[in-house]
Design brief:
two-stranded parallel ribbon, alpha+beta, AhpC/TSA, oxidoreductase, Thioredoxin peroxidase, plasmid, peroxidase activity
Amino acid sequence: MRQHYDEFRKRGSAIVAIAPDGPRSLARFWEQEGMPFPAVADPEHRIAELLGQEVQLLKLGRMPAVLVVDPDGIVRAAWYGESMRDIPSIEEVLAVLDSLGASV
């Protein structure tokens, strides 16, 4: 998503990552990687649970998910997977944004 951040911004959209890391390690990683969008630490998986993101503690931890949420907090599209191969391509996500008229 980092490489395509400008494409999201052109559509008036924002990206927010939700990570299972603690705040300090997440901030350190985000700074090291120069990520252009914000991230929220969710080490207790509270946000993940609210969004229906599966957590398998004995396997890989948090399963990947991509959600399109409108300004009112309504999930307009969601993809849940068991590995990173299961999440949609950037083109698919951008197509959904285009169909919604962006501003999400």
